[in-house]
Design goal:
The complex is a heterodimer of chains A (about 325) and B (about 325). Chain A has about 325 residues and is α/β, with parallel strands linked by helices. Chain A has two domains: about 230 residues, Rossmann fold; about 80 residues, no CATH class. Helix content of chain A is about 35%, strand content about 25%. In chain A, the strands form two sheets. Chain A has an eight-stranded mixed sheet, with helices on both faces. A four-stranded antiparallel sheet of chain A has the order 2-1-4-5, with helices on one face. In chain A, helix 8 links the parallel strand 7 and strand 8. The radius of gyration of chain A is 21 Å and the shape is globular. By secondary structure, chain B is mainly α. Chain B has a single domain, classed as MetI-like fold. Chain B is about 75% helix and about 0% strand. Chain B contains 15 helices and no strands. Chain B is globular, with a radius of gyration of 24 Å. Classes of the chains: A alpha/beta (about 325), B mainly alpha (about 325). At the A-B interface, helix 2 and helix 4 of A face helix 10, helix 11 and helix 15 of B.
């Protein structure tokens, strides 16, 4: 079965006043149908740029140099703006943003905003005009009820500031599912929530993936969330994917030195607090070859010569590191 | 909503009373004998003394003020020293022309200014933005009287498309007076010829008057839209495939116009001040040219009345501004 989304050798750079910053360098990942792929990496590693590249909403000045983003067998990079807006965004790919308060427009009713998405992207149902709108409202009410938003009919008539943080995130999950997408991209959707709400939202997402036969790309910096929610994992460091594979074996025995160091820092796993010496390289002056080389404990001269080769770790993960070549 | 309006009106009353006090004192403080002005150049001291007594100008100032407030409350502003007519009648006759002119100017400023501001913001730091920036600086800097004369030269003298002055052609009979607003009266009485003529007459003055406001509306809207575009809900809208035109003109614009609305409210004062120049040049029979006349002849009653009336209009516009704010951003009406 072909994967729903596969990204190969994606290179993205952004032109800044200080020069050209290489944000993503040879990113590759594969999301199998019906699974949840967690993308983990620290702040500034390019997670958000990756999401924006998939949806074709990169900031002005950003440029994709190489690679392909294949969604349902089609390379999204060959799509025009109109095609992306008409067929992909909001319709086949739903998006759950990081901060539900900021993502909702404060001066429009929630219902207006959710209906706006369905207006252009809801699957064709043969209805027109007000009948179509009524059908959309019915679907939204059904979704909100499923998301356990109290009084779904009234909720549509309310404004974003009249909801709690957890409820707002439920509204946006409903929005992401409104047009029956195949893929949902979630950008740290639980970061802005407290721990109890976070847990409830993760449980909800897990159920929805099965219930609505979705595949999900879940971006986070929290291994705890990955362990709780995801089937597969892709670790990104400074714009390079370093390790990818099923979650459980990687967490049990991480292959790449960066994954090892990162997991060793996790407060629930760490025996002693070590940290990772050094800092993330600036994308303006990224080291050639493996970008983790300057901080790596197992560094070899060959590491900074060229792109690290792919290998298989004993746990069965794909690792971009000479140690496994 | 109604409570909101009532509360605002209640708040406006003390400010209007303050205005009443200040203008009353200012007019008394100025070393100017209004009785002498009323009596004319050839008056004898006895005649002036008689007028002073009649107008109550010899009584203590506090008593004068109490009498004055009592009259104002009955909408009686005394009579003009110049025209010997009731000031309130003069005002009722002339206010509609100024209000019409001001609203037309405002309408022009808004309908042109807001789209241009949005356009400049979307083309931020590209050439359309630079051009608009220069044009809007010019709009603020160019003197209205110069611009008015240039427009007259081009459209009236050279091309002959539009009339030079006045609010109605001399050959056109005025439609029957119903509301006092020439445009409305023409429509109500079905005088389409008069309506057409009046519209022709209002184009140049309204456009001249709109210029300063237009420039500042462009700048405020541009700044507002640039600010709003930074918000997460804009990139969320893009990610969820909002149609671009709707995202900009509906969802971004509504968040961007807060400062513009405040600015439009403030512009109103500027428009009335600008009306002084515009009404004089185009010989438009509004309240502003009336005021200029009153100031030149030292007609105190008229000055007091007009100042108070402008204050009332200003307060009303401010309440309206708050109301529009509330309609645009429902979070504001939520607060007690």
């Amino acid at each position: 079965m072909i994967p729903i989304l596969s990204i190969r050798d994606l290179k993205v750079s952004i032109r800044t006043d200080a020069g050209v910053a290489s944000i993503l360098d040879n990113i590759g990942l594969t999301l199998e149908r019906g699974r949840i792929l967690g993308i983990v990496g620290e702040s500034g590693c390019g997670k958000s740029t990756l999401i924006r590249a998939i949806m074709g909403i990169l900031a002005r000045g950003a440029e994709i140099h190489a690679g392909e983003i294949v969604f349902e067998g089609e390379n999204l990079l060959t799509f025009t703006e109109a095609e992306l807006n008409g067929r992909i965004r909001g319709s086949q790919i739903g998006f759950i943003p990081q901060d539900p308060l900021l993502a909702l427009n404060p001066v429009f009713k929630v219902g207006t905003q959710l209906l706006e998405i369905m207006r252009d992207h809801a699957p064709e149902d043969g209805l027109r005009g007000s009948a179509r709108k009524r059908a959309h409202i019915q679907r939204l009410i059904m979704l909100l009820r499923r998301m356990q938003v109290p009084d779904p009919e009234l909720a549509l008539e309310r404004y974003p500031h009249q909801f709690s943080g957890g409820q707002r995130q439920r509204l946006l999950i409903a929005a992401a599912l409104a047009c029956a997408p195949r893929l949902v991209i979630a950008d740290e959707p639980t970061t802005a929530l407290d721990v109890t709400t976070q847990h409830q939202i993760l449980l909800l997402l897990r159920e929805l993936v099965t219930e609505f036969s979705l595949s999900m790309l879940f971006v986070t910096h929290d291994f705890g969330v990955i362990a709780e929610l995801c089937d597969d994992l892709c670790v990104i460091y400074a714009g390079q994917s370093v390790e990818a594979g099923p979650v459980a074996p990687i967490l049990a025995s991480p292959g790449h030195p960066y994954t090892q160091a990162l997991l060793a820092c996790h407060p629930e796993r760490a025996t002693t607090f070590r940290g990772i010496p050094g800092t993330v390289p600036s994308p303006l002056a990224a080291p050639p070859g493996c970008r983790f080389a300057p901080r790596c404990v197992d560094v070899q001269p060959v590491c900074s010569l060229g792109p690290p080769p792919s290998g298989l770790s004993p746990a069965g993960a794909t690792v971009k590191c000479v140690n496994y070549a | 909503m109604l409570g909101f309006i009532a509360r605002r009106c209640g708040l406006a009353l003390p400010s209007l009373f303050g205005l009443l006090v200040v203008t009353f004192i200012l007019v008394r403080v100025v070393p100017h004998d209004s009785a002498a002005a009323m009596a004319g150049d050839a008056a004898t001291p006895e005649q002036i003394a008689k007028l002073t007594k009649e107008a109550g100008l010899d009584r203590p100032i506090v008593e004068q003020f109490v009498l004055y407030v009592g009259k104002v409350a009955r909408f009686d502003f005394g009579e003009s020293a110049f025209s010997r007519r009731e000031v309130s009648l003069d005002i009722m006759e002339r206010l509609p022309a100024t209000l019409t002119l001001t609203f037309c100017a405002l309408a022009i400023s808004i309908t042109i200014g807001i789209p241009l501001g949005v356009f400049a913001a979307l083309r931020h730091n590209q050439w359309p933005d630079y051009v608009l920036r220069i044009v809007s600086v010019l709009g603020v800097a160019v003197a209205a009287f110069w611009f008015a004369i240039m427009l007259q030269l081009l459209f009236s003298m050279q091309l002959g498309w539009l009339p030079l002055r006045g609010e109605l052609s001399a050959t056109m009979s005025r439609p029957e007076r119903v509301t006092g607003f020439l445009l409305f009266d023409s429509v109500i009485t079905g005088r389409w010829d008069a309506l057409r003529d009046a519209l022709h007459h209002i184009v140049l003055p309204a456009f001249t008057l709109s210029l300063g406001g237009l420039a500042s509306i462009v700048r405020f809207t541009r700044a507002g839209v640039l600010d709003t575009l930074q918000n997460d809900f804009v990139s969320y809208g893009r990610a969820m495939g909002y149609r671009r035109s709707r995202l900009v003109w509906r969802y971004v614009l509504r968040n961007s116009v807060t400062a513009t609305i405040t600015q439009i409210g403030l512009l109103f004062g500027g428009l009335i001040a600008g009306g002084v120049v515009v009404e004089s040049i185009y010989d438009y029979p509004g309240i502003c040219s009336y005021t200029v006349q009153a100031i030149l002849t030292g007609d105190n009653q008229v000055m007091l009345a007009v100042t108070l009336m402008v204050g009332v209009v200003y307060a009303a516009v401010n309440i309206l501004t708050d109301l529009v704010h509330g309609l645009v951003d429902p979070r504001l009406l939520d607060k007690p």
